[in-house]
Amino acid sequence: MLKLINHPLITHKLSIIRRKETGTRDFRENLSEIAGLMAYEITRDLPLRDVIIDTPISSCTTSELSKGIVLVPILRAGLGMVDGITSLIPTAKVGHIGLYRDHETLEPTEYYAKFPSDLSEAVVMVLDPMLATGGSASAAIKALKKRGATTIKLVCIVGAPEGVARVEKDHPDVDIYLAALDSHLNNKGYIVPGLGDAGDRLFGTR
Length: 206
Description:
By secondary structure, the chain is of the alpha/beta class.
């Protein structure tokens, strides 16, 4: 289920976005580039179908993707991963899901969702830079399954063991892709050592 993607370029760029002095522009650019680099590994097992085409020289049998790709960033930080992946897969459709934490139940509550209509036929990638407690990721996956998605991949940059365990427990059929698995969560729910609040650093907010 858990797949750690190790590559020197990813490791280098991850070091840049971990640094507290990295500004918004460099954080945004490197986060997007990491997502794009991860996409090569994430898409390694995409299904293909045989097709016959005509080249300028002759006909030949080759292969093309047999399923569409749908990216679903979890608002708002997940938006920072979309461009990096669509630069590699420009035909990918993009849905969105927004979640907030209910102050009484402490559970994620959906406040916005808009998806393409063909989720059941697509490979769906849920995007969120941070996999901390796993609550939002699990809720997003649950919402997609309710709407017919059957092939789902969770794509995050940095994760904590607690978040991985939550998603594995709730959705054992979903593969998890990380660039780094960090040590633990602190008492405020932040990943240690992590990289801080990805949304705030991505958009320059506090």
